[in-house]
Design goal:
The protein is mainly beta. It contains 4 helices and 19 strands.
Length: 299
Amino acid sequence: MGDNPVMNWNFTKMHGAGNDFVVLDGVRQTIDMTPERARALGDRHFGIGADQILLVERSTRPDADFRYRIFNSDGSEVEHCGNGARCFVRFVHEQGLSDRNPLRAEIATGILVLDEGDDEQVTVEMGGTRFEPEALPFDTAGLASRAQGQDTLWELELDAPAGVARTVALSAVAISNPHAVQVVDDVDTAPVSVLGPLIETHPRFPRRVNAGFMQVVDRNNIRLRVFERGAGETLACGTGACAAVVAGIQQGLLDARVDVQTRGGLLTIAWEGGAQDHVFMTGPATTVFEGQIEIPDAL
């Protein structure tokens, strides 16, 4: 033990519509998170396994109750995670860290307002939206584009294999996280595993991007798959659902309230339109189990 000192961290495993998390209480225990430790926790073979690691900390600003940090399973820290936000507020309440409701959480890009309902659903005020490419950032110099309703679709060329579309039309949406959304005929047959990583790591997205594939069922229903930066395809992506709905509304395809069917469950997104109007997301947050894990100091 002396040659390989370890830390014991208490954790809770949670999921929001199948998007799964390791949640850590950084208020009552000392958590020094590093990319290496985040990767170790997220590893599905040698760790706990999760899409993202969520860290609850004391807030650094007076207008928030707690600080909420998110690490992808590849160790990278990101700005926001909508499904994680729902689990965040449920964790805070279940662990007795606070009984405030709504709860205000500090994230890298601002403040989230989280409201846990009596129906086991959690509503998150996700903040505003931005559509200018530099908000992602997205280098559009020299790219062809076309107007679609109030949206702009950017034609991005990909180094895709034969038999797969090599040019895709993308809507650029920033909801704290960067998203590139495309409309597809059928999400079940969409080449998400092929195009997703090509879009995520395209050099025109210097900070990478989440790639969304949206099938419009009708004006109040869509089906969605998202290839998340740093995590790969997940069963659900909260900010991705928001970005897809906002893009669909901008394009004139959707109404102001939309049910989003992901592979992990149902999310409901509401947006009245306009960059200053906040997006609201409602969905489940589920605690799976609790435990303790040893983290080597060397990581």
